[in-house]
Amino acid sequence: MLKCLNEVLNKLQNLVKVTKFVSPQKDGNNFYNAQLEYLGMSNEGGILYPYGLFANPPANAMGVTFNIMADQTNQVTIPFHPLKRFTGLKPGEVIVGNADTQTSIKFDEDGNVTISSKGTVTIEGDLVVTGNMTSTGDMVSDGGDLTVSGNIVATGDVSAEGGSLSMSDIQDAYNIHTHITDGDLSTPPDPPI
Known about the structure:
Elements: H1 2-13, E1 16-21, E2 26-27, E3 32-38, E4 41-47, E5 62-67, E6 75-80, E7 94-98, E8 103-107, E9 113-116, E10 158-160, E11 163-165, H2 167-176, E12 180-181, E13 184-185
Parallel strand pairs: 4-6
Antiparallel strand pairs: 1-3, 1-5, 2-3, 3-4, 5-6, 7-8, 8-9, 10-11, 12-13
């Protein structure tokens, strides 16, 4: 009887435990799997992520491991890394990202979304902006066209291949131009721009 109680107690104590990733995650048939370690014992178990979220934890990341039906050979682990995490969040704020590279998407308490990256941010597909777009840096096209259905308002110079013209240069060129009408030169446009 005592042996049976000890077995039950051992299973209950090991039902939920903190484990360590000892090898990179592999993509199994139905689950991601990884080699996990607990109290010096190693076992392969399934890795669980919330719907739509996927990752590959580095070695030495931690996980909360659940033994399904108290069976240590049937485990599922939710990974976390307490030493590499985003800090300083205010109540209600959410960050999704890679703490190793400090690349993230932050949803702050005021409803703003901030994308932070020390590398390149690539958008595959169309980018549709329905509000205002502000750039504090250069906007560079890699050979594509800029299509605008409204006005382009420039407060600085407009550069073109072969040189650049200021908005003032363009206005001056327009304001002094004339046309030949019925064999005579016309006067410059009135009103000028």
